[in-house]
Amino acid sequence: MLNNILIHTDLFFLLFVFVDVSSLCGSYMKSTITQLERRFDIPSSLIGVLDGSFEIGNLLVIAFVSYFGAKLHRPKIIAVGCILMSLGTFLIAMPHFITGRYTIETTIRSPVNSTNTLTPCPVRTSAESSWKYEEPSLQPTRDCEQESSVSMWIYVLLGNILRGIGETPVQPLGISYIDDYAQSENAAVYIGCVQTIAIIGPVFGYLLGSLCAKIYVDIGYVDMDMVTITSSDARWVGAWWLGYLIAGVITLMSAVPFWFLPKSLPIPVDKHDRSCTPDQTSDILKHSFTEFVPTLKALFGNPVYTIYLCVTILQFNSLIGMVTYKPKYIEQHYGQSASKANFFMGMVNIPAVAVGMFSGGVVMKRFKMGVMGAAKFAFGTSLLGFFLSLLFLAMGCENSKVAGLTVSYTGYEQSLFSDCNSRCFCSSKGWDPVCGENGITYVSPCLAGCTSASGSGINITFDNCRCVGVSYIKSGNLTAILGKCPHRESCDKVFPYFMALSVLSSFIISLGGTPGFMLLVRCIKPELKSLALGIHTLATRTLAGIPAPIYFGAIIDTTCLQWGYKMCGGKGACRIYDTSAYRVVYLGLTLGLRTLSFIFCIWGFALLKKHLSREEKKALTNGSAEMELLRKEENSCVHGEPFILGLDSDVDRETDL
Fold this sequence. Notes:
By secondary structure, this protein is mostly helical.
């Protein structure tokens, strides 16, 4: 008995470690979205493809693993999955080591005969009077040819697909392994703890992302005193690759214990009577195959399940799109650095979700909610969270004052070029912002009309900036410093309220997570339950996990005011957004999807009421027959969870953050 307890305890901790590691990698991926955009000069829509590629990899092999995994050595298959995940994580980090150093986009040029003086405003000569910049020249032609030969983000795409393939066997095979060989009274505890504690993974993932975002991408290879940007700059790229290396090593180490677990363990006494012989299992599999299509028709013939599926797909689209781009929203709208945005996600938002999920289960047990009670509770918490989320629309900040983009130089036409910078040989492309004494940001020192500069690194000061004086009554030298002007104090005051409301709404919405999931398993016949859960997972991943980051990113791209440009030409990553438009499309799309889901919920309530009424009449008419069927169900060869309307044992639960 002591031996069994030790085996099950070790098994629980091993599964916990791996579930925790896999969720850590996923949340770290989301924390590096803005870093990857800037490093590879790609738009948000393409970042959405990279983020969704994990689900693609998962779906490629899920059917194969689910069918053959149980017949093979499950612990070793999980170990192979760990190794694949580790290799995929290392592959994501590979571009950092096979490409050149990150080059900060800048329009400042040094004179040919001097290395000490910067020339922010190259003067047009008579020969150049009709010439106009088309692209900022950032690298020699040879480097440009080398960069254009292959898109480095392809490695990230392939690595994330490989991660998805490796993660596939963990949940189904790991949970089933525990359930098969742990005592019945312990299995529920193990599975419940593994699913709940897995929330720690995303917390550490975002905290790791926060730490790495503070460190410059080429740390150790460049003189940091000569870096002219800070971590709050739209061109800053943190050490995104470092976190992937750390996560890859941890994942690889987690594979080791699984190699030493046996293929099978002694079956506990309380499960001997429910074990099947090989011949019985073979017959059941053949029967299941022939009955698959009729069973599928019966499942989708249940209108409650079909409506539930539609509701969760819409809710997951809203959730995944919101979570994926929330750190970026905090960066762009409230002027926080990527490091701070990830820190707030990891230490504030995710713990609120975890507490909400746990509390929802406690409330459901405390008040002994039935099917309709669970449905009403889940709907009520979601609706309350929705109304609270509407307040986000009022917690906005005004656009940053950027000359030529959000404000004009003279108060008339908005254009990057004006009389004050007409003497300079400026490019309208790229992003190299400076903050004038007047509190207005200029796209570049050249477009600010600055004629000279002094200092080095981040301490460069630009002098004689003619455009600064256009809207600023001051005589003498007008200066500008590197970087965007800081957000207004009013915006800084709004941000704490935004975070407080974010925590409250996340907690309330999460309260309904567990009751909502239990609604799924309680309104399905026991013989259809496994298929229903499988279809639910497949549908949410295919119709929400993959497309949501893509179309959310594409819509966010439409609010870009100024794009960066690649060294070989072509549009790169967005440098500044119209924050008002960003707020409207980001929150509007999130809330719009949830509004549409509520329409299906109302329809679902009517169907659920009819379903429960029909079941109640059936139970009253055939009470004795139902009890006999229940006894047969408990003693059947292929044992499942006991099914009583309103009650259910522990089921697989996927925590998707």
